[in-house]
């Protein structure tokens, strides 16, 4: 998540015309404290009941964990990009930035 924070301006147009949500199974109080202390510019959502993760097909019942999947959703609500995100790959960030840009001009 730190890479999203550190590249927020370029990946997400500094939040102009883009909403970035990080979804976690952590409780809201812990999540809010962590995000505030780390100075994240995006919003985090607590999904302790796994409803969001289940709806998007990224919750694994067997391991009780989320898959690290990134979605880009256009203003019309359509998912325009979905990818298992490799945080160690520079190409993954380039692709994500391009997909965000494409979705925002549709």
Q: Could you give a short account of the major beta sheet?
A: 2 strands, parallel
Oligomer: single chain
Provide the residue-averaged pLDDT. Answer: 90
Calculate Rg over CA atoms.
14 Å
Q: Can you write the helix and strand succession as a string?
A: HHEHEHEEEEH
Structural class: alpha+beta
Please count the helical segments.
Answer: 5
Give the N-terminus to C-terminus distance in angstroms: 27 Å
Find the count of extended strands (DSSP E, 2+ residues). Answer: 6
What is the general shape?
A: globular
Strand order of the largest sheet: 1-2
- Please report which band the strand proportion falls in: under 5%, 5-15%, 15-25%, 25-35%, 35-45% or over 45%: 15-25%
Helix fraction, binned, reads 25-40%
Low-confidence stretches: none
Explain what you see.
With 106 residues, the chain is α+β, with helices and mostly antiparallel strands. It is built from five helices and six strands. It has helices at residues 2-6, 8-11, 28-37, 51-55, 90-104, and strands at residues 21-24, 43-46, 59-60, 65-66, 69-73, 79-84. The strands form three sheets. Strands 1-2 form a two-stranded parallel ribbon. It has a two-stranded antiparallel ribbon with strand order 3-4. The longest helix is centred in the last third of the chain and has 15 residues, at 90-104.
Features:
106 residues, alpha+beta, 6 strands
